Amino acid sequence: MELRGRTTVVTGGASGIGRALTLRFAREGANVVVADVDEPGMAAVAGEAQALGVKALAVRTDVTELAQVQTLAARAFETFGAVHVLCNNAGVAAWGGLETATHRDWQWVLGVNLWGVIHGVEAFVPRMIARGEPAHIVNTASMAGLIASKGLGVYNTSKYAVVGLSETLVKDLKPHRIGVSVLCPLGVETRIRDSERSRPAALRNERAERAEPMQLIGRHLSPETVADMVLAAIHANELYVITHDESLEPLRRRFERMERSILDRRR
Ligand SMILES: NC(=O)c1ccc[n+]([C@@H]2O[C@H](COP(=O)([O-])OP(=O)(O)OC[C@H]3O[C@@H](n4cnc5c(N)ncnc54)[C@H](O)[C@@H]3O)[C@@H](O)[C@H]2O)c1
Fold first, then answer.
1. Which residues line the pocket of ligand 1, CB cutoff 6 A?
2. What is the CATH number of the domain that holds 113?
3. Which among 184, 185, 199, 200 is least buried, having the fewest CB atoms inside 10 angstroms?
């Protein structure tokens, strides 16, 4: 898909991967809509995009609230007439065993990581279909949506769901010429380890103690490298954007365990 003159929307666009995606799209000549809860951050990114010669709109959006994502979609379509690329990217991480996860941890992480993506689909897909132009949706999951890690269960649950949603969405939207990609990185140099900064007061744990972020295997890529890979996947209409070669062995081992369960039963 040629992005020049088209319109892109990125949630979580104020920082990290979302910021890099927004600026990568702007460099391609696309108009950009930045949606985030971090108002100064998204205003700065919109300013950077404008300096690249494209139109940019920043819309404060808490993706956990359907009404706010509906407003985001309405603003984007009113301003630019169409949306060609939607990145449901906003996400947060919480660390610690499932046996100690609080209800607030579940509400916060699933609210942003899963309901945020669902709200993006609910608000944008009907408008994209009505518009009838080719479009693409990128959902940011994680390698944590394909491989489970001890101490990351709440996050794993949210990201596995995003992978499942995306794998189905690609089938459902094919007749409408809307492609879907699901982004599954390992480590990326962003502020994800400081996710608590955006946790709403009402969902803070009563006891402040929390597990330290765990160390991921493999390299940490720059958000810009990841954004390049996403752009290539949009152009090639590829479902999986698996950014790290280091993912191959754990993925193979997971599949082999499943294969063994079938083969062992046959014996
Ligand atoms: N950094 C990594 O190692 C890594 C690896 C795999 C997947 N991811 C995923 O990448 C995505 C982007 O995260 P990042 O690494 O760039 O982190 P980041 O913390 O740098 O950026 C996340 C952005 O999401 C925004 N956000 C948080 N809650 C929000 C809400 N309710 N509504 C709207 N925006 C909200 C934050 O303000 C921030 O700007 C997330 O979905 C994350 O789970 C990151």
1. 11-12, 14-18, 36-38, 41, 61-64, 89-93, 112, 140, 142, 185, 187-188, 190-192, 195, 198
2. 3.40.50.720
3. 200
